[in-house]
Here is the input.
Amino acid sequence: MRYQKECLSMLLVSAELKMLYIDFAAYCKSKNYKSGKGKLYQKAVWELLYWMEKNDCYEISDLNSKVLDCYIDFLLTRPNKRHKNKSLSVNFINHNLFAIRLFLKYLIAKKYIDKTVIPPKNFRVKSTRLSLSEEEIKLLFKNCLNDKEMALLALAYGCGLRRSEIVQLNVNDVNFKNKTLSVTKGKGNKARDIPMNSKIANILHNYLFHYRYKLLKFNNNENAFLLGSNGKRISGDSANKLLKTIVKRTNNYTLQKKQVSLHILRHSIATHLADNNVDIEYIKHFMGHAFINTTIVYLKNRKIKSKYKI
Here is the structure.
């Protein structure tokens, strides 16, 4: 098997580390992991022990917090064997870190190491929240072919809606007189009213009164704001697919490489609001966050974090 061959090519030298690996492998098997997860955990731990030996750590007592930090740095910079010129995926790294935490818990239970070595529960690498520049946003709008595509960008970026909120939006949720958009069932079933500037309101108005009827066909009772090609409420997958079509149309390699999604557009408007010194409480309400800490972490803005002492 491929897994066995990889292990054979990375034989451990230390008798102690080899013994601990064998014991942990047996532990994984005793847990009756399915879908191959037990072996994946074993492999992740094997690679940690092999790396330790390569860095002159031949005893389990050498495994401390500093060594763990160095190994995480190694994972973050290690080349991807399957995709050259790329680093390891965040999911792959997080899986390895989870396996290591499992291994450390096992070692503590067996009294091989001290409790201070085990990492905290949030011992994970988080994916960087990507955002587009304002110029890239303008490029997307510029490459829309119809009012429906413009409306999708207006909802995701201009109003900062989540994908589910775009799908659930109804015609009567948009108030052009007051220039507000009502989210009746946001995350956690929380409702909020979102202000629209004149440009966003005009885009949505044009779609609703000059384009949406073309999609209705014979289904005049449909209350969904954004419709699919079948005249019914658009699905989340269809909305993302439409966005990818717009991105592809730009012929901008840098933009296409970012794998733009509706969530990235939502994050982009939050980032741009913060960059323009908009009040954090306003952004919190605009995004529909329950707690201000969520907004601060989400934005990754050092000045705002410093102000609120997070």
